[in-house]
Specification:
Elements lengths: L2 H35 L6 E9 L10 E6 L5 E6 L5 E7 L4 E7 L6 E6 L9 E9 L18 E3 L4 E4 L11 H5 L5 E3 L5 E3 L5 E4 L2 E2 L12 E7 L14 E6 L6 E12 L2 E12 L2 E26 L2 E28 L4 E25 L5 E27 L6 E24 L5 E28 L5 E22 L5 E3 L4 E20 L2 E18 L4 E7 L10 E12 L2 E12 L3 H4 L3 E2 L5 E4 L7 E14 L2 E13 L2 E7 L2 H6 L10 E7 L2 E15 L3 E15 L1 E2 L2 E2 L2 E16 L10 E10 L2 E3 L2 E3 L2 E12 L5 E8 L7 E6 L3 E7 L5 E12 L25
Parallel strand pairs: 1-7, 12-15, 32-36
Antiparallel strand pairs: 1-4, 2-3, 2-5, 5-6, 8-9, 9-14, 10-11, 12-13, 14-15, 16-17, 16-49, 17-18, 18-19, 18-48, 19-20, 20-21, 21-22, 22-23, 23-24, 24-25, 24-26, 26-27, 27-28, 27-29, 29-30, 30-33, 31-32, 33-34, 34-37, 35-36, 37-38, 38-41, 39-40, 41-42, 42-45, 43-44, 44-47, 45-46, 46-49, 47-48
Length: 858
């Protein structure tokens, strides 16, 4: 590590300690002020009494919650005193509020309240006696409420309600992503947001889990942030997809259980439990998910010399896979008091993959006459273990909106895999063309990630607010892969594609944003600085590589990431926003790892250790229109990516083939890798409509249109390309709801269709993709406690990923599949009891901690 980097790191640690000391002093001063002046003297105050509507007696321990009417943010809460009294203070007299009251044995009541201001008089309003209506049978977990909209569109993000995606019931987060506008999922489960790879968060923090390792039944909502501000990680050049997991906070014991079966080889089960009592909120979930299927693939090749066809190659494959995932997640919230909360969460995930692939190969001459053929079998098995531990602390100051949060997140995981490949070659008469190639592979890897973050929000007026924070991220990864060629005698020879790869990554960051308003224009100005370092090493050869940003003080711009957001309300329901941000895209492990993947003998894959990060300048203009029956969002965007990380393909050289000899690799195989292009520019427009027709039908069509130009000259070869592509998605929901009891009542239908047009890449294009998913859900039993869901993914079995390469050396048209059409039947049951307790009261004795319980946010 250079002396400069050591100095920078010391400065960052000092800044971290200084910032921590500042917020702790601020917290102490705030607490001292509250104790000396009284909690409810700094603003408006509501007082009142909750009584039984029949007896007019006070209701003890009723949960009283106060929310800001416009933002929905929690403004205060408490449990009523033994006589039913409550008081909520430190409120802004200019705001309107929504008061929500719940109590065991009573129906929930909701009121809209506000202050009546008078000159020279304190803003204190007595709400009088609020009567609650008794409810003879009450289940806290299954109270009937109106359905949440599937999609909430804000200017800076879209929030998708996971429960509305009934086609994903019993599936994984990958199935859920197919239901979200702006998001596309390829056949290998990779997600793109507006044709760029987003950063995946779980509960707002980095994760080593992949989306197919997260059960869809455990997801509460998904947040899409297409152009993140300086508050977010600068590595989110492709946007952010934040998966927010479910965590119930209703009083008592609540939960749900589900089980599903399907084809091919589908089996799933899920159980979630939540217990809220006193100062504690316990939560736990367990999940099992299994799936299988046989997927086809095809490759058609023309090998050329200076553009003239020399011969042909055809390949057909059938890959049978089985995937099994098991996960357990548990934790607790501890409410120290009304202002301080500690949360601890632990997550374990285990998985097992197995596969068997058969390939048929044909080698043809220039006249397309068969000259030889081959067959290839490949068997593989892989296991992995992942865990995540998270500790969070949050302090709410007496001043509304002022808060401090600190958290530590630790991810760790390991995996191992092994495979065997046998390639036989035959002459046209069926005799042996050459000895069979037999390859055995063994690999394992270990990964540890530590993230520490501190955030402080300080509103200095009704329109102005500071947000500052610090973040450190440490990532250690080691991968060992050994490949052996096995001769007929049994002698094993280690192949050059074996490698022992190790890297260490560290990113230290600090940010500040300031929000305010000038007349009718709201603004947010932000600046983030990140000091990043990547050190990689090929252990066996002692070859080292990596990067450091900024490397010297004169390159400080490499560490600065500004953002600007300007928003104006044109009229009621009409909002316009212009924003800009600068981000960075750092190459990932597979893009850097020089390991050669030979699972497809004619399409090899290899990382490039010489890759450099790319920087992204992103501009957006957003127009959001909301009205009674829906909303409309239009976006114009432009992205400029200097040093864009892009794919590059070429036939392997004679030297490369010699190194891979006896590895069951074709001598004319294509080697797919990654390079830094000169630039990649995208201009696009996206339109999303959410429309409700009547009470039972809604649909959400979206379309994204994009023009892309890639400027790339590699080894004096011009690979530049440009073209137009578009994608469209339609999500439609219909629900039968009548007062009459019938078989079709409470029956829901969902249909999701998606189309992606061909898209240009260097040296060719990606082929079009399209698929349709559908599902039916029937709710039954009292309060809709049970549901039965039948879903079909990829109704017409058309989902596949294809590419066309066209160069002077070869032309190739290929496609492959990862999943196949599947059918799933899932049963779900919700349960709950608000009277359940772990700590029974004796002789109606009341514990002191219940008077200080944080409000019920369930």
């Amino acid at each position: 590590m250079s002396g400069y980097y050591q100095i920078i790191k010391m400065k960052f640690v000092f800044a971290l300690l200084l910032q921590l000391g500042f917020v702790l002093v601020a917290s102490a001063q705030d607490g001292a002020m509250n104790s000396s002046q009284g909690l409810n003297t700094a603003g408006g105050k509501f007082i009142g009494k909750i009584v039984d509507g029949k007896t007019n007696k006070g209701v003890e321990a009723a949960s009283v919650q106060l929310f800001q009417k416009n933002s929905g943010k929690l403004a205060g809460g408490m449990l009523t005193k033994p006589n039913g009294d409550f008081s909520l203070g430190n409120l802004s007299p200019k705001d309107s509020f929504r008061l929500v009251i719940t109590a065991i044995g009573f129906k929930e009541q909701e009121l809209v309240i506000f202050f009546t201001l008078a000159p020279d008089k304190p803003a204190i309003k007595d709400l009088g006696n609020i009567k609650l209506e008794q409810e003879s049978q009450f289940l806290g977990a299954v109270t009937v409420t109106a359905q949440k909209p599937a999609l909430t569109m804000d200017i800076d993000r879209k929030v998708f309600n996971a429960d509305r995606a009934i086609t994903a019931a019993g599936g994984t987060a990958v199935d859920l992503m197919k239901n979200i506008p702006s998001v596309t999922v390829d056949v290998e489960g990779n997600v793109q947001l507006r044709n760029a790879s987003p950063q995946i968060f779980v509960d707002g923090r980095p994760t080593i889990l992949t989306l197919d390792q997260i059960p869809a039944d455990n997801i509460d909502r998904v947040e899409l942030i297409t152009n993140p501000s300086a508050k977010f990680d600068a590595a989110s050049s492709g946007g952010i997809i934040n998966v927010v997991l479910k965590k119930n906070k209703r009083i008592g014991l609540n939960g749900s259980a589900s089980a599903g079966v399907g084809s091919p080889g589908i089996l799933n089960g899920n159980l979630t439990l939540n217990l809220r009592e006193g100062k504690f909120n316990f939560f736990a979930s367990g999940n099992y998910n299994q799936s299988g299927g046989k997927a086809k693939g095809e490759t058609f090749r023309q090998n050329k010399s200076q553009g003239v066809i020399q011969d042909y190659f055809n390949q057909n494959s059938l890959n049978e896979r089985e995937r099994k995932f098991r996960s357990v997640r548990f934790g607790l919230d501890y409410f120290l008091d009304n202002r301080n909360t500690i949360t601890v969460t632990q997550n374990f995930v285990r998985g097992n993959f197995s596969s068997h692939e058969d390939q048929q190969q044909e080698y043809l001459d220039v006249n397309q006459e068969l000259i030889r053929y081959g067959d290839r079998t490949a068997d593989g098995n892989a296991q992995f273990n992942r865990s995540n531990t998270q500790l969070l602390y949050k302090h709410n100051f007496a001043r509304e909106g002022k808060e401090l949060s600190a958290d530590i997140s630790y991810n760790t995981g390991k995996s191992n895999d092994n495979s065997s490949i046998i390639n036989n070659y035959y002459k046209t008469d069926g005799s042996i063309y050459q000895d069979a190639n037999v390859v055995r592979n063994f690999g394992n890897n270990n990964n540890d990630q530590l993230t520490m973050q501190l955030d402080f929000v300080n509103p200095i007026s009704e329109t102005q607010k500071w947000e500052v924070g610090l973040r450190s991220f440490f990532n250690n990864y080691n991968s060992v892969f050994n490949a052996y060629s096995v001769e007929s005698s049994g002698v094993e020879t280690k192949l050059p594609l074996s490698n022992n790869y190790d890297y260490r990554e560290n990113v230290n960051a600090a940010y500040a944003t300031f929000s305010g308003a000038v007349k009718k224009v709201k603004y947010q100005l932000g600046l983030r600085t990140e000091l990043s370092r990547f050190d990689g090493e090929l252990v066996d050869s002692a070859q080292k590589f990596g990067y450091q940003y900024p490397k010297t003080i004169k390159n400080i711009w490499d560490a600065l990431f500004p953002s600007i957001f300007l928003t104006k309300e044109l009229a009621e329901g009409h909002e316009l926003q212009v924003n800009y941000s600068r981000r960075i895209r750092r190459p990932n492990f597979w893009q850097l790892n020089p390991f050669v993947d030979i699972s497809d003998p004619v399409n090899l894959r290899q990382g490039n250790p010489a890759l450099r990060p790319e920087f992204v300048n992103s501009f957006e203009i957003n127009y959001n229109r909301t009205y009674n029956s829906g909303s409309f969002l239009a976006v114009l965007y432009y992205r400029n990516n200097p040093a864009d990380i892009t794919e590059y393909s070429d036939t392997i050289s004679a030297e490369q083939f010699e190194k891979l000899n006896n590895a069951a690799v074709d001598p004319n195989a294509i080697l797919n890798t990654f390079v830094n292009a000169q630039s990649n520019n995208r201009v696009g427009a996206e339109f999303t409509l959410q429309q409700r027709i009547g009470d039972n039908f809604d649909f959400t069509p979206s379309i994204n249109m994009q023009y892309r130009k890639v400027n790339a000259v590699i080894n004096n070869l011009d690979l530049s390309n440009d073209g137009f592509n578009w994608e469209a998605k339609l999500i439609a929901n219909y629900r039968i709801a009548t007062e009459n009891s019938s078989l079709f009542n409470k029956l829901s239908f969902q249909l999701t269709g998606e189309y992606e047009s061909p898209e240009v890449i260097p040296q060719g294009k990606r082929k079009e993709q399209y698929n349709v998913d559908m599902a039916l859900r029937k709710e039954f039993l009292k309060n809709n406690k049970a549901a039965l869901t039948f879903s079909v993914n990829d109704v017409f079995n058309t989902r596949r990923f294809g590419t066309i390469y066209d160069t002077e050396q070869f032309y190739q048209d290929s496609y492959r599949r990862w999943n196949v059409r599947s059918f799933r039947l899932t049963f779900t049951y919700k349960f709950g009891s608000s009277e359940f307790t772990l700590f029974p009261k004796k002789n109606n004795e009341r514990r002191d901690d219940e008077n200080n319980t944080a409000p019920d946010n369930g």
